[in-house]
Amino acid sequence: MVQVMKSIFILLSLGMILLLSGCIQPESGPQVKEALASEEWKPNGVVGPNEYARSVVLHGAKTQGYSGGDLEISWKNDDQYLYMALNGSTNGWISVGFEPSEWMKDADIIIGSIEEEKPVVLDEYSTGNYGPHEKDVDLGGTDDILEFGGKEENGFTTVEFKRKLNTGDRFDKIFEPGQEISMIWAMAASENSQTKHNMAKGEAILTLQASGTGFPTSAALTAKESEGILFIEEEEKAARDLYNSLFAADQMTIFKDTAQSEQNHMDSVRPLIERYGLGLSEKNPGRFNNQSLQKIYDQLKQKGIKSPNEALSSAASFEELSIIDLQRELEGTNNEDIRTVYQGLLAGSRKHLRSFAKELKAQGEDYSPQLMNQDEFNKIMG
Ligand code: HEM
Prior knowledge:
Layout: H1 2-21, E1 32-34, E2 54-60, E3 69-77, E4 81-88, E5 94-98, E6 108-115, E7 118-126, E8 133-135, E9 147-153, E10 156-164, E11 180-187, E12 200-207, H2 223-250, H3 253-275, H4 291-304, H5 308-331, H6 336-362, H7 374-381
Helix pairs in contact: 2-3, 2-4, 2-5, 3-6, 4-5, 5-6
The structure holds protoporphyrin IX containing FE.
């Protein structure tokens, strides 16, 4: 009995020791966050929520000689280029060094700062364990930062830059899609890149995006597909604006509800616009970039505001147009991303056409299709 009690006591004590020492707490390293990377890359010192595919916040503790600080690194790549943003809690320099052989030696260093409101991003190389780090050009290499920019705000410095995965310079490490890059990082309170790091320093691993999984761009679409996406988004806007005007004219709830549904349709096209970096040009209600849409909208609005029945018939013909345009766009693309969105919109437009034609019938009037043939119309109504 005494033996059993002793064993229980030893087990409980061991448990307490483990608990207090933190051994049984899960280890948590820096978390890599993923995003769509659908935003166009702009080296303006502002890191957009979808400008990069991955990001990680690295923390440097306050220790002797170091005041402590955080550096957020965001990156994305395709098969050719690496795009990166460094955002550090300092008004001084921030830096990353790719693949050192030991300490700082042989690290392919990129060091950035904002000097008198001007971004400076240098392509350097550390020749020794504790530096010096020198410009690639001074070592006989080349400056391979293709584009860069940056900003200093509220005690944070952000720099963004682009370089080739393989620059061809012997002072730059060669990267491949999907590669795990070992790197060091450091920050200083001073902008002078020759001043030693006195805020934070550390090591990290960055994993590049695998080949073919790079961020989508408009280059992945045909010109017809790109134009089609922007046209369809604007056509859904024309429907929304038309139904809002008709609701304002005769207060029929069918127009208020359908306008809301058209807003949802517009919202379902927008991820395509973002994903492929197509650049949406917003227009005020009732105004359109496409002049044929402008004309149709103006005509149907003018006709629709005359009476509730004219309004229903105008709305039904707009849905016919929408169906025909969506069918044409669907025929012109094999891109599943786009097809999924268009098929959803097509189902929505058929539903709207049925609702408007039925409402007109309830008012004692039969709707005759204006654009599609009677058979197709009957099929939709059926
Ligand atoms: C500006 C000139 C620089 C000087 C004089 C310098 C000097 C040193 C020295 C003396 C050490 C040894 C440890 C210590 O004292 O804390 C060290 C370590 C380190 N330095 Fe630098 N450094 C410079 C720039 C950089 C830059 C630009 C980076 C950016 C990547 C960097 C990253 C590191 C890291 C990560 C360590 C720790 C390495 C390890 O623990 O293996 N240094 N540096």
